[in-house]
Amino acid sequence: MTENNYPVANGVVTKVEGSQAQVWLGGLDVKQISQLTTGNVFNVIYPQEKSRPKLIFQSRDGLGVTATIKGTVKPGYLLDISGKEGTGNREQGTGRKNR
Questions:
Q1: Residue 85 DSSP label
Q2: What pLDDT does residue 51 have?
Q3: DSSP characters for 4-70?
Q4: pTM for this one?
Q5: How far is it, in rounded angstroms, from Cα 34 to Cα 21?
Q6: Phi (first) and psi of residue 57, to 5 degrees
Q7: Architecture (CATH level 2) of domain 11-81
Q8: What pLDDT, on the 0 to 100 scale, is given for residue 83?
Q9: pLDDT at position 14, please?
Q10: What distance separates the 2 farthest-apart alpha carbons in the chain?
Q11: Rounded-to-integer distance, Cα 75 and Cα 87, Å
C-alpha cells in the first residue's frame, strides 16, 4: 500500500455570499457531522493568502453547512475542521481521519 501525502479535507467551499459561505461536508462521517456545534472552526488547507482564512460553523442541513467567513475564501477551497473558535485545539470526535 502506498502512503498518501495529500491533505485530507473535511469539506469544500461551494458558494460565497458576502461574509457567509456554503460548505459541503463530504469528508466527515455521520458521527462527526452530528457533533458539529456553533463555533466549530474550518481552516483552509494550503491557503493562497498569507493570512490563515477560516470559516466559523453556524448551521447545518444534511451535508450542507452555513459558515461565517474570517478572511478571504473562494468556492473550491478545501477545509479541515480544527475545533472551536477561540480554543485553538480539536474537539474530541471531530477532525481529520487518518486514511
A1: T
A2: 76
A3: P-SPPPSEEEEEEETTEEEEE-TTS-HHHHHT--TTEEEEESS-SSSS--EEEEEEEETTEEEEEEE
A4: 0.76
A5: 20
A6: -60, 135
A7: Beta Barrel (2.40)
A8: 72
A9: 98
A10: 44
A11: 26
